[in-house]
Structure formats: C-alpha cells, structure tokens
Write a structure and sequence with these properties.
Helix content: 25-40%
Number of domains: 2
CATH superfamily of the largest domain: Jelly Rolls
Largest sheet: 4 strands, antiparallel
Strand content: 15-25%
Number of helices: 8
Shape: globular
Structural class: alpha+beta
Length: 220
Amino acid sequence: MQLFKSLGEEQLVQLLDRHRESSHQTDQLIVMEQDWGESLFLLRSGLAKVRSYTADGDEVVMSVLGEGDVFGEMAALDGASRSADVVALTSLRLVKLRAAPFSALLEKQPGFALALARLEASRLRDLNQRFALQSADATTRLLDALAYLARKSSTASDPQASIPVLAQREIALIAGLARETASRTLSKLRIRGIVAVAEDGSLAIADLDPLVRRGLLPAS
C-alpha cells in the first residue's frame, strides 16, 4: 500500500505490533465523533464514509475511504478527540494499529512522514473540489460523486471502475443532493448511456466525455 512503501520489513513489524484485524458490516459505526482514541485504522477492503452533522442535524459526508486508506491518525497523533464519524458503506475489513509505533516511525522515517503528508494533501484536494461544486448543477455533482466513488473502489484510482452497490441515499449524500434529485439524475444518465448498471446493481461510468467537458477530469 502506497503509504507504507518506504518502510522496510523491520519497520513494518514495529508498526504491526499488537495489531488487531476485524470485519464489519454495512452501516456499522467504526469511529464516533468526539470519542477519544489512541489507535488508527487501515482499511484492507471495502468502502467507508467520513461524516459529520450540521447544527441543523443534516448529515454531511466529508470523504470516502477505500482500500489502503488510513483513518483515525490525527486523533491518535495529537491526542484530541475524533473529528468525525466513520461508517461502513459496504462490508469491510480493518487493521487496528497502535498510535505509539506509528508516531515513532513518522519521527524517524522522513519518507513515511512525506507519504502521510501526500495522503493528507490528496484528501484535502478532493474535499476542496467537492465543496467547490456545491453550486454546480445536479448532473455535474452526481458525475463527480460517481467518479470519486469509482476511484475509491479501485486500487488504480480508475474513474471507470465498478462502484459497489450502495443505497441511493448514500450516493445522494456524497453528491450533496436530495435523494429524489439524485435518483432522477441517475436515471437520465443511465438512459443516455453515460452510466452503466450491472446485473448485480453495481454502477460504472461508461462515458468519460461528459466529465471532461465539465472539467471534472483532464482531457486525455
């Protein structure tokens, strides 16, 4: 996994000291906002969402986590409480890591610290793009959300990768749309052949041209 590529076998053994592996089902709460924690987590498979709530009680999805992503590292490093919930979007597998060896390796291994900084920068870039699209039309926001989910579902960050079956409410939340609006927009994209639906209900973007025209992807 990209974050740990700079670490040697000895460092990986140190990182995995007294680690725990676990499996979780869809909708299971993994981390709760405002909890205290001295552990961080590595997502081995599946998808999860990082969410919070507005003062009015509306759910806001801040980011999506996929295979190879680490979460909970900030609270583990600075000793503050968790800043958001993490909830399983699909069934998933986790590795729970102790904060102490993780922090020690960051101090001793510049390559590891740089890899973590790049990961955080990538998350911030994704968050900035998603918030920049809040005033965009429904089609643009939904296409961006689908491409984001596809990249998170693929180890190659492929915007045309298969997206696991998710409740339309979850897709709507990630796009920042009302569920009914997301449903209508998705139906139109399917009719136009821009989005394909597999027999098992999974989605995939079949045509990237609309995303390129909207500036969601660079021109090839």
